Amino acid sequence: MVLPLPAAGADLKRHVDQQLASGRLDPALDLSVVEFDELAQLAGVTVTGVDASGDDIAVRYCVHWTAFHACDDRSFGGTHARVLRGRLGGDGWVFRLHEPLPVRQGIYDEF
Known about the structure:
The protein is mainly β. 9% of the residues lie in helices and 44% in strands. The chain has a five-stranded antiparallel beta sheet with strand order 1-5-4-3-2.
């Protein structure tokens, strides 16, 4: 997936925020939150910083999640920081598509 370069002199973080808002970055982002709680739902994504140096770019972002446990009548939530790294190529920065880890069905799958 390719993130187009911003116009000359444009604010890089704002450019990435706009791409995030349009959903253009979604295929490269790790948006999984089930590792925090089996009932977790993605509540939002926030870009916290962007660093570009030479041909490399690092987009720092946070995923926000919530989970409602009806049995306890309680809601839980949290935030987790992540980094998306890319490299300059062609007309923009190239990011790998996110490949989710395989889901394990149970503790006995390996036996």
